[in-house]
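Run log, item B.
One chain of 297 residues. Sequence copied directly from the ordering sheet:
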Amino acid sequence: MSDAQFLEEEFSTQINSATVLRIIGLARNHWGWLIGFLVTIGFTAAADSYFTFLGKRVVDEGILAGDPDALLRIVLQYGAVLVFQAMTVLCFIYLAGVLGQRIQYDLRKTTFNHLQELSLSYFDRTPVGWIMSRVTSDSERIAQLVTWGLLDVTWAVLIIIASTVFMLQINGRLTLIVMTLIPVLIFFATQFKKRILGQFRLVRKINSKITATLNEHIVGVRVIKALNREKQSLNEFRGLTTEMYSASFRAAWLSALFMPIVIFVSSFAVGGIAYVGGAQIQAGTLTIGGIQAFVAY
């Protein structure tokens, strides 16, 4: 399939709030599942942040204070929260799976019904493989975005909020040190998002070409063999898969590079906490468990 036969639409715009709301709107018929999904994520994120706060209490109220009874109470509380979090994780994974499948079903049904209303000229100029890619793999990715993508965003926001609340309870000055790095992390995240988004869009486009080419060559295998074009077909497919590999490698490289940068920037916060927190410990305004909690957050 050559570009002269079919030119796929190019997308160069960034994701905006209207696009996100339109995608989330796919769950409008399943609001009960979506709300339950978000609530369980919230409980899980709160429990995860509370673990670190309990770790501070273990050090300060149990170990350093030499109080075995207090240590036992905190450990039992830690175990109870652990069981609660395990239940919430089980719930949101189940809800995410059900919600994703229902959205995927609705999207594929809507797409198929829409295909029945299109003119014959559309099918004349659009490869069947490209249509199959839209109906199958793309609908699956959108369903994953509504569920697991929403999970990542909600989890990150709630973890930041919960961690900030607990850090403010421990020490306001150290909290300000941590908060100063958030704009820096947002800057790097924005820059990486632009590049990663472009590479993943390229992967999606090449994947459509590969699916369309496979369909054409399978359907037209008799013509290919009759004209002795097996080698040319193989070279065409090899070229597409090479493009797919290169684009996927660049996308994976950018995704892998992002986390070390986040860790590197976060190390400045850890250094600031160690410096200021050490001085506060010497002054008696911060406990060992408090600085341990900040490093963990």
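Observations after the first pass:
- Residues 1-5 have pLDDT under 50 and may be disordered.
- Residues 1-8+16-170 form a domain with the ABC transporter transmembrane region fold fold (CATH 1.20.1560.10).
Flagged for discussion on Thursday.
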